[in-house]
Every structure is written in structure tokens, then in C-alpha cells.
Amino acid sequence: MPEKKAVVFCSASFDIDERYNDLAREVVRILYGCGYGMVSGGTVKGTMNVIAEEARRLGMEHKGVLPVFMKGLEYRGLTELVWTPTMSERKEAMRAGTCLAVALPGGVGTLDEVIETLTLAKLNRYPGRIVAFNFEGFYEPLKALLDHYVQTGMLDKPSRRLISFPETLEEFLAIVQ
Question: In this structure, are strands 4-9 and 100-103 parallel, antiparallel, or unpaired?
Fold first, then answer.
């Protein structure tokens, strides 16, 4: 796998607007172009399947990490497949060895993954950069919540700066290159 690895958190839903999947393909292309290998949830569901297909099309190194109860949902074209006993261990294994965590628009699982990663970064347990792609304002509520935490003293300003919210592919590229 390339020296630089990015973990990508994204939706497992088939019921999302295709614009989110188009964005996901572009993000994978940018990561590949910048020399990253990719780690993801590795399933055939929703945007996870979309990024797996794009990685495969590009010939990109792609490790998928799944809990054993998801056996049968794994994307068959992964470069590497890792099984974990639990969802918590899955998240830990997904982040291991990465220098970048990217949250694409996604559901509560994606939210859980990005918040846990931010918490670990705040505690100096995740050394990578954290990005929540704020496509068409998707992550505005999260930005507002984090800013509210800063205003109320629940989060310090340096910790708030650990997560970036690019809104365009150009802004994303500037962060990841």
C-alpha cells in the first residue's frame, strides 16, 4: 500500500442523491492523484460501493475493514480485506496507519466515525488531518455545533481547528496535497 493512506468514511445508503456519489468518485480521484492509498468500510452498500468501484477502476490500493457480522457484504475487488470482531474495532482498524481522515456526506455511522476521530485527535491519539467535506452545506449543522461547543467552553479553539470543512474539490485538493 502507498506510504500515504486516507481513511474515507461515507454512506452505506442506496437512497441518497446521486450527487453525493459523484462527489465521492471525484474525492477518490483526487486522493489517487495525490498518491494516497485508501481505507474504507469495504462493503457493497451505497457510497462505500461507489468509492470501491472507483478505486478499482483506477488501480488504487484499497483496504476494506468489516466486522464479521457483515460477512457477505464485502466488496470483492479490495486490495486487502480485514475482519474485526466489533464495530469499535473496525473504526480503530480503519484509522490505523492513515494520515488523513475524510468524512463524505453520510449518515449516523459516518458521524460517529468522524466525531470519534476528532476526539482521538484532540487526545493526541490520531495524528492525521481530519476533513468533513461540506458539500452543498451538508456539514453546516456539525460546524455550528462545534462552534457552539467553543462558545460555551466545551471545546477549546485549537481542538476545533483539528477538523476542516472544505466546500469545493479545489479546497479539498489544497488540504490533501
Answer: parallel
132 three-state secondary structure? strand
Nearest to 117 by CA among 127, 106, 108, 107: 127
H/E element holding 89? helix 87-95
C-alpha cell belonging to residue 165: 470543512
Query: Three-state DSSP class for 97?
Result: coil
CA distance 143 to 163: 9
122: Cβ–Cβ under 8 A, 6 or more apart, which residues? 159, 162
The pLDDT tens digits of the residues spanning 96-123 come to 999 999 999 999 999 999 999 999 999 9
d(CA 7, CA 55): 13
What pLDDT, in 10s, does the model give residues 3-23? 899 999 999 999 999 999 999
174: Cα within 13 Å, side-chain hemisphere: 8
